[in-house]
Design brief:
With 582 residues, this protein is an alpha/beta fold. It has 27 helices and 13 strands. Strands 10-9-8-11-12-13 form a six-stranded mixed β-sheet, with helices on both faces.
Length: 582
């Protein structure tokens, strides 16, 4: 689609499919032509002759500018869609960076409920207040929910808005005076004060956050928003000693504070430390920084900390649990297995690289498969069939291995009875996974080599000749992994029609590299049949968090009948989301 015809719906879908970069990194890295890579990759990347620039831990500005810029473009084209997408992101997504960026935009954009006057100067009505959506995102609270912003997220909203390049974007968009030297924070300060007040008045909540290791983060939020507590108990729980300001206006916290301090465990043995953990119900974050060097983190101490660990913590700590022998304990193993079964992303694949046991590695890989299966189940019903066409022609020589890895991550998500896979060059070959697992897909794809011509229709005919039929009343999505360099799309549409296949939507996993020649077969076919077309770069599947998002976005597309927009299904879901309210 020409850029001039790309609307807010298409931009929203492209954001979900291809904006996978992380905004915050807790360790120093390297800037590789606008992409963050670990500092440990320095030697490997240098061998490729690429330009490198050190990047400190914290906000990675290029990724932040890209994500915020995409959201800003959507807002400028359709403010209501942007506001509902922000509400949708909080309620329906686990994508924390998206929530932070969407919240930041809503807090500063100019639709703030201003009164509009009639010709006689009287208030006729009030404009929509989308800044209230940003406030509601910060203040959203639901006991036990993982969707609300934690203290780190609340602080990151302000940090994002304070980044000079983001502040410049807001000035250019008219959200702040062009001559303003301070970054526009909009309603962040007032919302942050409400966020703190709620937790101060509900002391168990504040104590829980301190226990979870957010003490310093809460102090930073309080300083940044100028919070004035109602009692000095707030400072005592945070262990935050107070002094009078130069202006002499402070009234709370200047008396004798009974600071709640976390003393180190110096001089204590392993058994005594475990007893203190049990008595105080201490968390992992509370303990690790207080352990004496001569004791360190031992199997017994980690076992004592297990009740405080979240499912996510347990998944991340898998290599540590294994190296300490704790996975040999039946009770610990059972708790760990429950944690990986609840995984909603494919990070387990990265963790699997750092374990020694083949059994543990297999369980982690199965957890990644389940995450893909859950994403597919959430986005489809039992009447959806998926046809995967895998390009193995000569033009794919440099991309075939990357294509295999992407497919191994996503094909495991589909039920075998509704999954139809075929590779093609000038001829087509039907591929049948032995099981719905990443391992089975890898085995299936292992023998594929790139070579020959490119005829997409050959894969379709191979599936038809193998007896693949789509029952009447059921839907079909055609997804191609390749570079589209092949026959004209009208030829492919004729083959589909001859075989009795009537796709409801098309998607492309673009495997073409930078500077490569690129075809248009799938796009032309979708246009000829007047069907939605989605496109995602193969690199997006390297991000373990992105796979479930991409699957849901692609599979949601054909839900809206009678449209050529690939974003119709997603936009339908977004626009039906009620705006968040405080």
């Amino acid at each position: 689609m020409p850029e001039s015809q790309v609307g807010p719906a298409e931009k929203l879908l492209d954001l979900v499919l291809n904006a996978s970069a992380h905004l915050w990194h807790n360790r120093p890295g390297l800037d590789l032509n606008g992409k963050w890579v670990p500092a440990s990759d320095r030697r490997r990347v240098r061998l490729r002759g690429r330009a490198l620039r050190p990047v400190p831990a914290g906000l990675y500005v290029p990724a932040a500018v890209e994500l915020y810029g995409r959201l800003l473009e959507i807002y400028q084209l359709n403010a209501e869609l942007a506001a509902r997408f922000a509400s949708y992101a909080l309620r329906e997504s686990e994508w924390r960076d998206l929530k932070v960026a969407a919240c930041a935009l809503m807090l500063v954009q100019h639709r703030a409920g201003e009164p509009l006057h009639d010709d006689e100067g009287r208030v006729a009505f009030y404009d929509d207040d989308y800044r209230a959506v940003g406030e509601a995102m910060l203040l959203f609270y639901e006991q036990g929910s993982t969707r609300m912003l934690n203290p780190k997220g609340v602080l990151r909203v302000a940090e994002l808005l304070e980044a000079p390049r983001i502040a410049a974007m807001n000035r250019e968009a008219g959200f702040a005076s062009p001559t303003s030297r301070k970054p526009q924070l909009g309603r962040w300060k007032s919302a942050a004060r409400q966020w703190l007040r709620f937790r101060e008045l509900n002391q168990p909540l504040l104590e829980g956050l301190v226990k979870a290791g957010f003490k310093r983060t809460i102090c930073k939020i309080a300083r940044k928003c100028g919070y004035k507590p109602q009692s000095q108990r707030f400072f005592e729980l945070l262990g935050w000693k107070q002094t009078q300001s130069p202006a002499g206006h402070r009234e709370v916290g200047l008396g004798e504070l009974k600071l709640v301090k976390r003393e180190r465990f110096d001089g204590l043995g392993e058994a005594e430390i475990c007893a203190r953990i049990a008595a105080g119900q201490l968390s992992y974050k509370e303990v690790v920084g207080r352990l004496p060097a001569e004791v360190g983190l031992t199997p017994a101490i980690l076992a004592a900390l297990l009740p405080s660990l979240s499912d996510r913590d347990l998944r991340i700590l898998t290599p540590t649990l294994e190296s300490m022998g704790l996975l040999a304990d039946a009770e610990v193993k059972q708790r760990w297995q429950r944690a990986i079964e609840r995984s909603t992303d494919q990070r387990a694949l990265n963790i699997a690289k750092n374990v020694a046991s083949e059994e543990v590695r297999s369980e982690l890989e199965r957890a990644a498969d389940r995450a893909a299966q859950q994403a597919v189940a959430a986005a489809t019903t039992e009447d959806v069939h998926v046809m995967f066409l895998v390009d193995v022609s000569g033009s794919m020589q440099r991309a075939i291995e990357q294509s295999k890895e992407a497919l191994s991550r996503i094909l495991a998500g589909f039920p075998l009875e509704r999954l139809h896979v075929a590779s093609f060059d000038t001829t087509g070959t039907v591929l049948r996974p032995k099981a719905a697992s990443r391992q089975a897909v890898q085995h299936l794809l292992a023998g594929l080599k790139a070579g020959g011509g490119t005829v997409h229709g050959a894969a379709v005919r191979a599936l038809y000749n193998a007896g693949v039929r789509i029952p009447a009343g059921q839907r079909l999505i055609v997804i191609c992994a390749g570079d589209e360099a092949g026959e004209h799309g009208t030829i492919l549409s004729l083959v589909l029609s001859e075989c009795g296949y009537r796709p409801d939507a098309f998607a492309l996993i673009d495997c073409s590299g930078e500077g490569w020649s690129r075809g248009a077969t799938i796009r032309e076919c979708a246009a000829d049949l007047v069907r939605p077309f989605s496109e995602v770069r193969v690199e997006s599947f390297a991000d373990p968090y992105q796979v479930p998002r991409v699957l849901q976005a692609i599979l949601t597309a054909p839900r809206m009948v009678g449209t050529t927009s690939p974003a119709a299904g997603l936009v339908e879901a977004v626009m039906s989301t009620p705006l968040l309210e405080k």
